[in-house]
């Protein structure tokens, strides 16, 4: 292991590390725009410059492309380095519009941070800024502001090295260089395209769905798990901070998903997620079912629970279809409290691939579009093609059940979260909370358990499945 | 471009395997020599032949102003407008050509005979101003010499 000295501090580096990697691994910060831990070294932004000290004199060089060598001495904050960084930032911002006031990236922008840390002075150029396209339609989901772009090429390398769509390139040269999509518009079909928004160090690549929606400092992230497929990528669900909640303006926004970004988890998804994970609002913000019902007649939650309990008590051959969108905790609660009261309990596949959706690939996307199939299968058997005849009660938990195919004459207890015609047809309908309203964990296809946290409060008329199962399990005598 | 593939095969032998993207530039030059410009169908053909991503071909095409995506006139008049030529009257020469041909730089005459372009340094500052007519250099140019040069062309 080569020993190197960064700012006089002795560091044991790995032989294949660069100076930048060794520094970051040991808590010494060196700024970088174009370097990214999961992409190839490009070395175009020059901001990671350091001073190398040697006997014959010292020199400046970029640390992202500098292999460590035994005994080397490096300064990350010398006067020369500071002057160089400042000069580089003058160049980086030469044609930058500095329109932070209307930029979605403001508050989490690397250029903004570095400007304050290493430059701090206005542009010294007397020339007019070179203008470029402000709203270039890069794909269906992404808009590109070429004036803000610093041409670090992270997005281009992402499409070549990670998503492999080879959908982006840099056209023209010099100060009229532009990031552009391939003319066949294949970037529209890159299911991982939105990751370039996260890795863009400036506000050049912007999500159309998040464009001008919120200032990021009004938002906070809640760690969660993407339920889009059995991969179970770690994500952060961004929503309004409680201290900045809106009262008069549009209070609905307080309980809305502002955006979804990946949460780095090397065991599951690395730092990436697919575009479906960005669109969780399309799943979670469908019209919610919040009214307990008996055959379509609205009742109090307690009355619905009583009615369901009575049906379970009276049934002689009850069958349960459990949700593979249920958390491990909910599934365990069902197993422990209720499974003994059912003749059989089967795992139901709540959701199928949507038309046009990428079914499966060799990167992240898995064919089973449910988050906890593995967790559910660990406790229950798969549902057979047709339920056994003679069932006189079916408890259906979650979506994806064809009520027309249930045994004729069987009573139904339905635990659902979204408005659907079958809610009113069930003998008992009890609305249950969704992932963003409760704590829990999913087990992905490889057996990795990932926890998620609640970010919104559920309505009082909506039940939490975990407590609901305990309530349903009580015999009628016990409640009396 | 399919008829050029035997030539491309010979060029390919000069590159190590796995360096197909290095062939993009020489192939594009050959295609342009053949057709006069690089058509969209040529890009598709080259992508299929070399197996490189289309965007890499597009990058090369846009990087080099010498490569064209659209047909041009029979005679391509390229006038240098860099420092030496400008100091020796290139701007006046461009104005003259603009009036004579009735088109702005980057445009082609309606009869399809001439395309006027301005270019950066042609590397012949000692004989400025320089005009390129198709592949030939014409040095120490003036309005009269340009008139004589273009006058005899089809």
* Oligomer kind: heterodimer
Q: In order across it, which strands form the biggest sheet of chain B? A: 2-1-3-4
- Per the principal axes of the C-alpha atoms, what is the gross shape of chain A? elongated
Rg estimate of chain B, integer Å: 18 Å
How many H/I helices of chain A?
13
Percent of residues in β-strands of chain A: 15-25%
| The named CATH superfamily of the largest domain in chain B | Glutaredoxin
What is the N-to-C succession of helices and strands of chain B? HHHHEHHEEEH
Structural class of chain B: alpha+beta
* CATH architectural designation of the largest domain in chain A: 3-Layer(aba) Sandwich
Whole-number tally of structural domains of chain B: 2
Indicate the low-confidence ranges of chain B by residue numbers.
Answer: none
Total helices of chain B: the number is: 7
Instruction: Bin the strand percentage of chain B.
Output: 5-15%
Number of strands of chain B: 4
CATH top level assignment of the largest domain in chain B: Alpha Beta
Average pLDDT score of chain A: 94
Q: Give the helix level of chain B as a range of percent.
A: 40-55%
User: Which blocks of ≥5 consecutive residues of chain A have pLDDT under 50?
Assistant: none
Distance between the termini of chain A: 72 Å
Question: Biggest β-sheet of chain A, characterized?
Answer: 8 strands, mixed
How does the SSE layout of this entry go?
The complex is a heterodimer of chains A (480) and B (154).
Chain A lengths: L2 E4 L2 E4 L6 H7 L23 E6 L2 E6 L10 E3 L3 H14 L17 H10 L16 E2 L4 E3 L9 H9 L5 E4 L6 E4 L13 H5 L5 E3 L11 E7 L8 E7 L18 E4 L12 H4 L1 H5 L8 E2 L2 E2 L2 H14 L3 E6 L4 H10 L6 E5 L24 H5 L3 E2 L10 E5 L13 E6 L4 H5 L2 E4 L8 E4 L5 E4 L12 H9 L2 H4 L1
Parallel strand pairs in A: 1-5, 16-17, 16-19, 17-18, 19-20, 20-21
Antiparallel strand pairs in A: 1-2, 3-4, 3-5, 6-7, 7-10, 8-9, 11-12, 12-13, 14-15, 14-21, 22-23
Chain B lengths: L4 H8 L11 H12 L4 H11 L3 H10 L11 E6 L2 H5 L2 H12 L12 E6 L11 E3 L2 E3 L4 H9 L3
Parallel strand pairs in B: 1-2
Antiparallel strand pairs in B: 1-3, 3-4
């Amino acid at each position: 292991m080569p020993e190197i000295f960064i700012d006089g501090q002795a560091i044991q580096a790995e032989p294949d590390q660069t100076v930048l990697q060794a520094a970051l691994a040991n808590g010494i910060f060196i700024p970088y725009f174009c370097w990214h831990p999961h992409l190839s070294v490009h070395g175009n932004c020059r901001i990671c410059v350091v001073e190398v000290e040697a006997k014959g004199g010292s020199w400046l060089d970029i640390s992202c492309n500098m292999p460590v060598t035994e005994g080397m001495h490096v300064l990350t904050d010398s006067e020369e380095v500071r002057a160089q960084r400042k000069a580089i930032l003058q160049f980086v911002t030469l044609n930058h519009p500095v329109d932070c006031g209307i930029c979605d990236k403001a508050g989490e922008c690397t250029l903004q941070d570095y400007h304050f840390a290493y430059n701090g002075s206005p542009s010294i150029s007397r020339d007019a800024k070179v203008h470029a396209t402000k709203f270039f339609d890069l794909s269906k989901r992404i808009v590109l502001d070429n004036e803000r772009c610093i041409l670090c090429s992270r997005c281009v390398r992402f499409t070549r090295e990670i998503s492999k769509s080879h959908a982006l390139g840099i056209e023209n040269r010099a100060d009229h260089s532009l990031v552009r999509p391939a003319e066949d518009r294949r970037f529209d079909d890159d299911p991982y395209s939105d990751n370039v928004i996260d890795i863009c160090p400036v506000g050049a690549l912007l999500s159309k769905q998040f464009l001008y929606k919120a200032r990021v400092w009004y938002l906070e992230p809640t760690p969660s798990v993407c339920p889009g497929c059995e991969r179970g990528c770690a994500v952060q669900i961004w929503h309004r901070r409680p201290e900045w909640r809106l009262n008069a303006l549009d209070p609905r926004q307080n309980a809305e998903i502002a955006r979804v970004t990946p949460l780095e988890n090397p065991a599951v998804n690395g730092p990436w997620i697919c575009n479906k994970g960005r669109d969780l609002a399309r799943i979670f913000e469908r019209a919610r079912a919040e009214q307990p019902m008996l055959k379509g007649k609205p009742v109090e939650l307690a009355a619905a629970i009583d009615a369901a309990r009575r049906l379970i008590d009276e049934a002689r051959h009850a069958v349960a279809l459990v949700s593979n969108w249920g958390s491990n905790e909910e599934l365990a609660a069902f197993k422990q409290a209720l499974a003994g009261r059912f003749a059989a309990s089967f795992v139901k596949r709540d959701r199928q691939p949507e038309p046009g959706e990428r079914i499966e690939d060799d990167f992240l996307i898995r064919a089973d579009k449910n988050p906890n199939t593995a967790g559910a299968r660990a406790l229950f058997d798969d549902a057979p093609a047709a339920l056994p005849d003679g069932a006189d009660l079916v408890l259906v938990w979650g979506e994806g059940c064809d009520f027309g195919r249930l045994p004729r004459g069987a009573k139904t207890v339905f635990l659902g979260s979204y408005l659907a015609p079958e809610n009113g047809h069930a003998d008992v309908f009890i609305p249950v909370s969704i992932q963003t309203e409760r704590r829990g964990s999913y087990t992905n296809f490889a057996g990795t358990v990932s926890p998620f946290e609640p970010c919104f409060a559920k309505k009082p008329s909506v039940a939490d499945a975990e407590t609901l199962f305990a309530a349903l399990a009580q015999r009628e005598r016990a409640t009396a | 471009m399919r008829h050029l593939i035997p030539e491309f095969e010979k060029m390919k032998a000069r590159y190590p395997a796995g360096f197909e993207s290095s062939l993009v530039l020489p192939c594009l030059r050959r295609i342009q020599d053949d057709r006069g410009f690089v058509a969209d169908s040529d890009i598709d053909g080259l992508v299929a032949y070399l197996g490189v991503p289309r965007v890499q071909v597009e990058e090369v095409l846009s990087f080099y102003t010498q490569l064209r995506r659209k047909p041009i006139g029979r005679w391509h008049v390229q006038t240098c407008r860099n420092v030496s030529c400008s100091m020796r009257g290139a701007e006046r020469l461009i104005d003259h050509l603009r009036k004579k041909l009735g088109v702005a730089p980057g445009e082609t005459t309606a009869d399809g005979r001439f395309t006027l372009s301005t270019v950066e340094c042609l590397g012949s500052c000692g004989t400025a101003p320089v005009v390129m007519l198709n592949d030939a250099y014409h040095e120490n140019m003036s309005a009269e010499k340009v008139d004589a040069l273009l006058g005899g062309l089809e």
